[in-house]
Amino acid sequence: MERPLNPDVLLQDRPPSPLREVRDERFERHGVRLLLKRDDLVHPELPGNKWRKLAPNLRAAVDGRYRGLVTFGGAYSNHLRATAAAGRLLGLATTGIVRGDELAGRPLNASLARCAADGMRLHFVPRSAYRRKGEPGAARQLIAAAGAAGAYPVPEGGSNALALHGCAELGRELRGASDVVAVACGTGGTLAGLAAGLAPGQRALGVPVLAGGFLAAEIRSLQEQAFGGPAGDWSLAEGFDHGGYARVPAALEAFAADFEDRHGLPVERIYVAKLLWALTELAATGAFPAGASVTAVVTGRPTDPEPAGPLARTA
Ligand SMILES: *Cc1c(COP(=O)(O)O)cnc(C)c1O
User: Fold this and answer.
1) Where are the domains of the chain?
2) What is the pLDDT of residue 305?
3) Which of these, 169, 221, 226, lies nearest to 198 by C-alpha position?
4) Given this structure, which CATH class describes domain 17-45+159-297?
5) How many angstroms is it from 184 CA to the middle of ligand 1?
6) CA distance linking residue 108 with residue 111, whole number of Å
7) Predicted TM-score of the model (pTM)
8) Per-residue confidence at 2, pLDDT binned at 50, 70, 90?
9) Which of 271, 276, 277, 297 to mutate to test the pocket of ligand 1 (most atoms within 8 A of CB)?
10) Which residues are catalytic, by number?
11) Structure confidence by residue, pLDDT tens digits, 237-288
C-alpha cells in the first residue's frame, strides 16, 4: 500500500468546481439556458458528490481515530469505489458489504475489482439480509458479521447528516447561478443537501434513477436528521429511470454519446445520462418557462472502461 496521505490534503476545502454555460439548440429553442456544474472535476478518485458526501465523514473517522471504514453497496456502486479509494489514500482499512451473495463465487466486475485493488475487503450478503440493513440493530449485525465491528460506519450511498452538510456546500456554490439546479438521485442525499444550500427563490430538481416512489419520504427524513426539518425548495421529476438502476437502454446510450459529441464532456451513464435526458425532455415539453436557466450538476464521470457496452451494465 502506498504511503497514506496527510488527511488534510484530501479533506481540506476545495475551490468551487467549474460552472459553464453550454449552447444546446434543444434548450435554446424554448428560451431556456443550460449550464453544467462540473462536479466530476472535484477530485480525480472521489468525483462529484462522492467527495462532497464522504469528506466530512472521513474527517470524522480520522478525528475519531477509527481504524477503518465500513459501508454498503451494490455491485456497481460508485460509492463503494469512492470509499475504497479514500481508504487507500488515507491509509484506512475498508470493508464493503455488497448486496447479493450469488456474486461471491463469480469473477468480480470492473467496479468491484477496482474496490478490491484499492484494498477493500468485500463481504457479500444475501439480498434479503441486505434489505434489512435499515432496521434497528440489523446494520450493526451485518457489520459485525463482516468482521468490521470497530470501523466507522458509512450508510449505503454515503448519505447521512454529515454528507448532507457537505452537499449543502454545492448548493452554496450555485447561489445565483440559475433558477433551477438539477441533480440525479440515488439515495437522494445529494439533492437533500443541495436544496438546503441554494438561495431563496432557487429550486432544486431531482431525477430519480430508480423507480420506487419512496424517495421523497427518504429525503424529508434525511433533512430532518441533518437540519432538524425541511430545507430549501425541491421536487422530483419521476419517470426517467429507463427501467431501473444501472439500466442503459440503447436510446439512452445513443443520447449520452451524442451529448458527449456536442459538448465535449464524458457522460456517466448510470446517473448523469438520465439527468441530462430528463432535462432535455422537460425542456422539449415546455416544463421550464422561457427565460429560465437550468444548471445540471455533473455528479460523476465514467470511471471504468466498460468492456462490453450497454449490455454489460444492465446485467
Ligand atoms: C452516487 C451518485 C449519485 C446519487 O447520489 P445520491 O446522493 O445517492 O442521490 C448521483 N450521481 C452520481 C454520478 C453518483 O455516483
Assistant:
1) 17-45+159-297, 67-150
2) 53
3) 169
4) alpha beta
5) 6
6) 8
7) 0.92
8) low
9) 271
10) 77
11) 999 999 998 899 999 999 999 999 999 999 999 999 999 999 999 999 999 9
- Nearest partner of 98 among 136, 118, 70, judged by Cα: 70
Q: What is the pLDDT of residues 174-226, one digit of tens each?
A: 999 999 999 999 999 999 999 999 999 999 999 999 987 889 999 999 999 99
CATH topology match: 17-45+159-297 vs 67-150: yes
Helix (H) or strand (E) holding 297: strand 293-297
Question: If 0-12 CB within 10 Å is exposed, 13-18 middle and 19+ buried, where does residue 54 land?
Answer: buried
- CATH number of 67-150: 3.30.70.20, 3.30.870.10, 3.40.50.1100, 1.10.1200.30? 3.40.50.1100
Q: At what angle do helices 215-227 and 189-197 cross, to 10 degrees?
A: 50
